[in-house]
Design goal:
By secondary structure, this protein is mainly α. Helix content is 63%, strand content 2%. Strand 1 and strand 2 form a beta hairpin. Helix 2 packs antiparallel against helix 4 and helix 6 runs parallel beside helix 8. The structure holds Phenylacetyl coenzyme A. Phenylacetyl coenzyme A binds next to helix 2, helix 6 and helix 9.
Length: 329
């Protein structure tokens, strides 16, 4: 627990202003409003710190769990070239998880604690990774839609008020851009291929469309964190705004592929220059968040096994570091 400014009993040292005095909170908000970056050692309200640890750690967990659906196809990629690309992508996701855990650690919570919260089910990860990858077209669809949605959500995070998160997001977004393109390239190859390949691409789009647009989170009226996160410039756009932007750029891409988005109410509105779309099944979204999606249990079991299986590596690394520290002393 972060205790900067408190003595060992957790009391305010005498003579200092209270940790969260109105003056401090106002001065903090003024820095945010002036677009200054907040850095790790700067004073910040506890709620700002907690919000960031929650969001960044859940983002990190999503990258790590997100390796599973695609990892499932590494041994079955249709060509050596596709296999190399997919391998690089899955490794990138691991790297994103590590930058993000590091960014979150600057806020005073250890990576061990964050991982423990994931494994105990206390911390969430993105709903999208609880769906199965049944065919090779699902790999194309994940790159095209899931990475596409991730980019839409994450480009504004490069301007997040918290410096370490914003800077981590710059590199992550560059890599997500390559991921999106490789996914679209798979979809292009399939949609220009045989009738069976095109049908496989359409089937994957049918299954992934709605879960992808749920990735942006609950509708604005039900989003409990959005208002405060936007005031703190952690989020720059609301969940619904980002969802709409994603739909507006993605539907023409589906048209280009000759695929049909599975939404009979989808229609371009000339007046607003946005697509109108059908009702999202929020019950499905909340079921997945509650742990009852098609793959939630499997994803967590694989992660627990991997964590246990990696214990000897962590112990060996620790023993090595201690040996070197002792030699240097
Ligand atoms: N899934 O009040 P809000 C990727 C939770 S990375 C699960 O709107 P907030 C790369 C939310 O945590 C994908 N839970 O919350 C990749 C909160 O619960 P809590 C991950 C969700 O934080 C590609 C509650 O609902 N990206 O894809 C979801 O203001 C391919 C109320 O929601 C990020 O994490 C959801 N979809 O807005 C990897 C980006 N949506 O914490 C591999 C950073 C909401 O109170 C392969 N995160 N919840 O228990 C964000 O931008 C935000 O946290 C949102 C949610 C937009 C996800």
């Amino acid at each position: 627990m972060y205790t900067q400014g408190l003595d060992q009993q957790g009391k305010e040292p005498q003579g200092l202003q209270p940790r969260e005095s109105a003056e401090r909170l106002t001065a903090f908000q003024a820095r945010i409003d002036a677009e200054e970056k907040i850095e790790a050692k700067d004073w910040m309200p506890e709620a700002y710190r907690r919000t960031l640890v929650r969001q960044i750690s859940q983002h990190a967990h999503s990258e790590i769990i997100g390796m599973q659906p695609e990892g499932n196809w590494l041994t079955r990629a249709p060509t050596l070239r596709r296999k190399c690309i997919l391998l690089a992508k899955v490794q990138d996701e691991a790297g994103h998880g590590l930058y993000l855990y590091s960014a979150a650690e600057t806020l005073g919570t250890s990576r061990d604690q964050m991982v423990a919260d994931l494994l105990s089910g206390k911390a969430k990860y993105s709903s999208i990774f609880n769906y199965p990858t049944l065919t090779w077209a699902d790999i194309g669809t994940i790159g095209w839609l899931v990475d596409g949605a991730a980019i839409m959500n994450q480009i504004p995070l490069c301007r997040c008020s918290y410096g370490p998160y914003a800077r981590a997001m710059v590199r992550i977004c560059k890599e997500e851009s390559f991921h999106q393109r490789q996914g679209f390239d798979i979809m292009l190859a399939l949609s220009r291929g045989s009738a069976a390949q095109k049908a496989m691409a359409q089937d994957a789009l049918n299954r992934w469309w709605w879960p992808s647009i749920m990735m942006f989170g609950p509708s604005d009226k039900d989003s409990k964190h959005s208002a405060q996160s936007m005031a703190w410039k952690i989020k720059r756009f609301s969940n619904d705004e980002l969802r709409q932007k994603f739909i507006d750029v993605t539907v023409p891409q589906a048209d280009f592929l000759g695929l049909k988005v599975p939404d009979d109410e989808l229609e371009f509105d000339q007046e607003t220059a946005h697509y109108r779309f059908g009702e999202i099944d929020w019950q499905e979204f909340y079921d997945v968040l509650a742990g009852n999606g098609p793959c939630n249990r499997e994803r967590m079991q694989v992660r627990r096994n991997a964590h246990q299986g990696g214990a000897w590596v962590r112990e060996a690394a620790q023993a090595y570091a201690e040996k070197h520290a002792a030699q240097a002393a």
